[in-house]
Amino acid sequence: MRIQEKVLPIEGSGRVLARHDRRIGAVLAEAGKLGASDIERVMALQQAAGLRFGEAALRLRLITEDDLRSAVAKQYDLPHLVPGNASFGSELVVAHDPFHPRAEELRALRTQLMIRWSNSEISQRVLAVVSPGPAEGRSYVAANLAVVFSQLGERTLLIDADLRAPRQHRIFNVPDRIGLSAVLSGRADRSAVVAIPEFGMLSLLPAGARPPNPQELLSRQALAGLLHELRGEFDVILFDTPPSTLYADAQSVAFRAGNVIVLARKDHTRLADTTGVIREMNDTGARIVGTVFNAF
Ligand SMILES: Nc1ncnc2c1ncn2[C@@H]1O[C@H](COP(=O)(O)OP(=O)(O)O)[C@@H](O)[C@H]1O
Ligand SMILES: [Mg+2]
């Protein structure tokens, strides 16, 4: 997998700092990673740039990503996912095998996104993962990206908006009976969002029962309403989507999300299809914040 282009800004949250930020500072201090004057510098940058404590400490290069990951794990008392843990699909490479080169690449993608959005002021950390055809890695990238965001203490929600061939419930091993389709048709509320305690800050809204009218559901105002409601609860919201050359669903999702990553799979996706998707996404007004060349 290769991140092909510069990732453009995702707009930053400017959100007031949650209490957990102060605790992360304490965990890092106790671990001997930060001294009192470091903490002051971090807090000053935090306030100036509207960052989370961990992000600010990373930008000042006072701690490493490993330091932050283990502090977050300690703070939430997260059980370690051991390789071969059967609760989750082996596709969650960032959890099963954090030192795998692919896990590095996914963290690099996350880092680029975070840097971009921390430099900007508007609160819109909502991102759709799109690509032209089937089996190009949208679900794989969306799932792993969600995990790496949560590993840094970002309250992360993954929404499976592939109502045609949903997969996230299987990757995370949660029931798929009630999900996005029920929420959009008014038969369920946000309680359909499932916390994934093994990942601390990660939640999943599975696709739910297959509806007869996915495209119509996804273009309803209800999706905007749901995002509005959830935006206060999560720092990052990611959408998985169906192939965009086959259905208009991804366009509806991109329109609401406002930011997209376009994937292309090596030796598989046609260039014309990728440029077509980029054009379609531009038509929705969504910003293309990155393109990923998925070689596997
Ligand atoms: N970068 C990758 N490395 C290894 N396997 C991958 C990668 N991207 C996708 N896959 C695998 O390819 C298959 C199709 O990917 P998937 O994410 O389901 O595609 P899509 O959601 O675009 O249809 C899955 O089995 C997935 O695990
Ligand atoms: Mg998929």
What do you see in this structure?
With 296 residues, the chain is of the alpha/beta class. It folds into two domains: 2-10 and 84-294, Rossmann fold, CATH 3.40.50; 19-75. Helices cover 43% and strands 13% of the residues. It is built from 13 helices and eight strands. The protein has helices at 19-30, 36-49, 53-59, 65-75, 93-96, 101-118, 138-151, 168-171, 180-184, 214-218, 221-231, 249-257, 271-284; strands at 2-3, 126-130, 156-160, 194-195, 202-205, 236-240, 259-265, 287-294. It has an eight-stranded mixed β-sheet, sandwiched between helices. Strand 7 (259-265), helix 13 (271-284) and strand 8 form a beta-alpha-beta unit. Helix 2 (36-49) packs across helix 3 (53-59) and helix 6 packs across helix 7 (138-151). The longest helix is centred in the middle third of the chain and has 18 residues, at 101-118. It is globular and about 55 Å long. The termini are close together.
